[in-house]
Amino acid sequence: MERIEREGLSFLMATPERALADKLREDRGGPLRSLKEMSTYLFDNQRIDPEVFRSLDANLFSQLAACMNSRKVSVANRLLRCLQERSA
């Protein structure tokens, strides 16, 4: 979570990594066990830009996957690391 202050107001906003992890954990659309299934879900169904996904903080996403104990978040984390390794 990030603390945002604007025009005298302050509020907490989820980081992109946290927002995606929450979405994956709460989505009841069925299991996403493979990298291919996760890729289709994120890039085709949810229309997430692959470049934006690739730019996420992999270390933070790993921590979220461990804390949430979610298979979907773990698979998304593997996909993120795989895509980041390919582009390096």
Describe the structure.
The chain has a two-stranded antiparallel ribbon. Helix content is about 60%, strand content about 10%. The relative contact order is 0.17. The longest helix has 17 residues, at about 70-85. It has 5 helices and 2 strands, in the order ββααααα. Strand 1 and strand 2 form a beta hairpin.
Q: What would the keywords be for this entry?
A:
88 residues, mainly alpha, 2 strands
- Tell me about the biggest sheet? 2 strands, antiparallel
Q: Identify the overall geometry.
A: globular
Reading the helices and strands in chain order gives EEHHHHH
Task: Strand order, main sheet: write it out.
Answer: 1-2
Layout of strands and helices, then pairs:
Blueprint: E1 2-6, E2 9-13, H1 16-26, H2 35-45, H3 50-54, H4 58-68, H5 71-87
Antiparallel strand pairs: 1-2
Helix pairs in contact: 1-4, 1-5, 4-5
Give a quick summary of the entry:
With 88 residues, this protein is mostly helical. 62% of the residues lie in helices and 11% in strands.
